[in-house]
């Protein structure tokens, strides 16, 4: 609409100026008007062909036609993406044409009057008029064009940042999902270790209690006491684990973590970095919580519980004992615990040997049992997750886990776990 209005005003102006110019040179006025209409209407295509508009304004300058055409044409040319050298050439040509025509008209007007200014004054007046008609639209167009390019560059940069932040948000969401999956897996392993071992021993003792209840009341009483102790230990460990699950990151046990997490990631850098920080915190939580887990010093008590359940277990320790990183000791303990639980489940009456070796940069352990000795099968169910959980624990610490049957019909579980604390000390 702006171009249509400008073109209509320019066409009307050129129509009047064309009629005046035709009368001045002795031509029919209608011819001048017909010439002025398309010249002024050329502003309709000023955005597409700004060079043509400026060239036309320069061409009709001798006829003193196209004042609005010249102003709008120079502004559009300066604000467009036309190369600077073309803008300079056309602006110089328009300035020169306006200067010449203004000087000639001023000299002609002064010739018919009694006032005779000097040549210098005529040139000065003509130069001021030419600059006044050429410089303002040209400078305004250059400013608008530079501002438009700046806005476009800022918009492109904002779009790029938005895409980058969206990518960061997606990666943060993926890391958060990975951290949640790792946490679920870790909790499942802990629950399996706590429940499977304690309850398996309780079932074994209960079966033995049933077998000797009438024959040996004293032994039955001892087994009943053991079952009670193990049940209380299992409940204590379960309460501790459930207490950890109920705790929020701020220490408030009442609000579930999902209620405090945002519904979605905001498309800003602060939100993305916050989610990345939370994900890293969740991923590092197992390392912090492992410090409260079991340790290698409790292996003797663990083996003693299996002996009390009727299993012949031998514990061999090689090397000088020392402390390891909490996760290393907890993993080694859980491997032995799960291996002994599997012996109770799958090889009733079999003997077992637990070997623990303290080495310079690692701790090695092996649990081997013989073939079943015909003991009473307690009918314990198996979920098939014991060996998988042991392998996951060991490999997560960069260790090696091997399991399989022996030549004598038994089963062997071996693990080598690097000493994380010693490795960090050497690196420092």
UniProtKB/TrEMBL annotation:
What parts of the sequence cross the membrane? Answer: 49-74, 86-104, 124-146
The reaction(s) catalysed by this protein are: ATP + protein L-histidine = ADP + protein N-phospho-L-histidine
- A GO CC term? membrane
Name any one GO molecular function: phosphorelay sensor kinase activity
Database matches in SUPFAM superfamilies: ATPase domain of HSP90 chaperone/DNA topoisomerase II/histidine kinase
Q: Does the keyword Membrane apply?
A: yes
Give the record's keywords alphabetically. Answer: ATP-binding, Kinase, Membrane, Nucleotide-binding, Phosphoprotein, Transferase, Transmembrane, Transmembrane helix, Two-component regulatory system
Which Enzyme Commission numbers does its entry carry? 2.7.13.3
Q: Where is the Signal transduction histidine kinase subgroup 3 dimerisation and phosphoacceptor domain?
A: 183-248
Pfam families recorded: HisKA_3 (PF07730)
Please give the name of this protein: histidine kinase
